[in-house]
TrEMBL record:
It comes from Microbacterium rhizosphaerae. It holds the Pfam family Aldo_ket_red. PROSITE patterns: ALDOKETO_REDUCTASE_1 (PS00798), ALDOKETO_REDUCTASE_2 (PS00062). Residues 27-258 form the NADP-dependent oxidoreductase domain. It comes from the Bacteria. Belongs to the aldo/keto reductase family. This is Aldo/keto reductase.
Length: 285
């Protein structure tokens, strides 16, 4: 049974979902979403940046899983920040996904006219086109700017989070403000070094599980939501199969001790520019 966490607006969020970053082949994307939903996934994570919202919407419809049972997340990119542009961006996502209201819309990065974009998202919630709103890649200082100006507190902050980068400063701040942490790169982007860590390998051997399953279980036991990406049907199935065993306190502590002092991902310069030209270069599929 997939466990879920309560968000500050009362919605519940499954602790494991499917991420579709870099899954730009529309048929592969659609099939992965359909497979995941038929396996029992109820959380799907996309973004305008991933250029696959239409395929995600098709996968959801093809699965036959009732739409109300699914928590669908997408994100808007900083080149669409500011009140008017953000409202147009939400309209674009609604049209491409073609799945009714968006369950969770995130600001993808903490650059540009964040406050204007946030006001737009608050308006979308008021109008019922979006059910919940949150942020991604917001550090403590970004949240300190947003929160005093927000009528609605973000329900989640989706950030890089895995045993090699555990967000030691951010997580206590999120807990204090009732913001749910959500892990991108939950497997360290499949890092071989992470998967080979002795603390993870020994827990995997002890429980008869794979290192990937041990890492996902570690997220679950820490109360994190994780969105591993896979297009491999066997991996998609295995990644949800982490709810019938538990890591011991000693195993958890062994993985906690793997934390390093910097993230794995270094954002390239274009990504942190307030208006990334990439988003305008080609029309979205
Ligand atoms: N908000 C942001 O800025 C941001 C940034 C990055 C990512 N994200 C989100 O987070 C999601 C996950 O991040 P990610 O895709 O970069 O990294 P990830 O989920 O940590 O790792 C994905 C890699 O692990 C492999 N993998 C998955 N399950 C496996 C299994 N059971 N056994 C062996 N290998 C396995 C995948 O390969 P296979 O496909 O072959 O299984 C893929 O190479 C993204 O898809 C996206 O939705 C958000």
């Amino acid at each position: 049974m997939v466990t879920s966490v309560a968000l500050s607006n009362g919605m519940r969020m499954p602790q494991i979902g499917l991420g579709v970053y870099l899954v730009t082949d529309v048929e592969v994307c659609e099939a992965s979403v359909e497979t995941a939903l038929n396996d029992g996934y109820r959380l799907i994570d996309t973004a305008v940046l991933y250029r696959n919202e239409r395929a995600v919407g098709r996968g959801i419809r093809a699965s036959g899983v009732p739409r109300d049972d699914i928590l669908l997340t997408t994100k808007i990119w900083p080149s669409d920040y500011g009140y008017d542009k953000a409202r147009a961006a939400v309209a674009g996502s609604l049209e491409r996904l073609d799945c009714g209201p968006i369950d969770l819309m995130l600001l993808h990065q903490s650059v540009g006219d964040i406050l204007g974009a946030w006001k737009a998202l608050e308006k979308e919630v008021e109008e019922g086109t979006v059910r919940a709103i949150g942020v991604s890649n917001f550090r403590v200082q970004d949240l300190e700017r947003l929160l005093p100006n927000a009528r609605i507190t973000p329900v989640v902050d989706q950030v890089e989070l895995h045993p090699h980068w555990q967000q030691p400063e951010l997580l206590p701040y999120l807990a204090a403000h009732g913001i749910q942490p959500e892990a991108w790169y939950p497997l360290g982007h499949g890092s071989a070094k992470l998967l080979a860590e002795p603390a993870i390998a020994s827990a995997a051997a002890a429980h008869g599980r794979s290192p990937v399953q041990v890492i996902l279980r570690w997220h679950v036991q820490r109360g994190i939501v994780a969105i591993p990406k896979s297009t491999n049907p066997g991996h998609i199935t295995a990644n949800l199969d982490v709810f019938d065993f538990a890591l011991t306190d000693a195993e958890m502590a062994g993985i906690d001790a793997l934390g390093r002092d910097r993230p794995m991902f270094r954002a390239p310069r274009w990504m942190l520019a307030a208006s990334a030209p990439l988003m305008r270069a080609r029309p979205l599929p």
